[in-house]
Amino acid sequence: MLITYDVNTETSDGKRRLRKVAKQCLNYGQRVQNSVFECLVDPVQFLELRKRLESIIDPEKDSLRYYNIGNNWKSRVEHIGAKQAYDPEGIMLV
After folding, report:
1. Model pTM above 0.90
2. At what angle do helices 43-56 and 12-28 cross, to 10 degrees?
3. DSSP for 2-55, written as a single string
4. d(CA 89, CA 87)
5. Are the C-beta atoms of 62 and 54 separated by less than 8 Å?
6. pLDDT tens, 5-55?
7. How far is residue 62's CA from residue 9's CA, in Å, rounded to a whole number?
């Protein structure tokens, strides 16, 4: 799942929402751009994440977009440039 968001940060409330959205996305995936996350989630996890995100944002000022890139995501994602791509199914070193 590719999740993108745009949170209005003109107020301190907006900045707080932005931090909360990013934190939730980090709990489920990897940041690949400032407001773009690749999340490897099953349907139940996605519904949980979606519910959390939509409870944080202000739909009058902010937006979320979900892109289901499916099981063949490796053939659908091409990366060029800085910030080396990662494999969420690969080995994770901590």
Report:
1. no
2. 170
3. EEEEE---SSHHHHHHHHHHHHHHHHHEEEEETTEEEE---HHHHHHHHHHHHH
4. 5
5. no
6. 999 999 999 999 999 999 999 999 999 899 999 998 999 999 999 999 999
7. 9
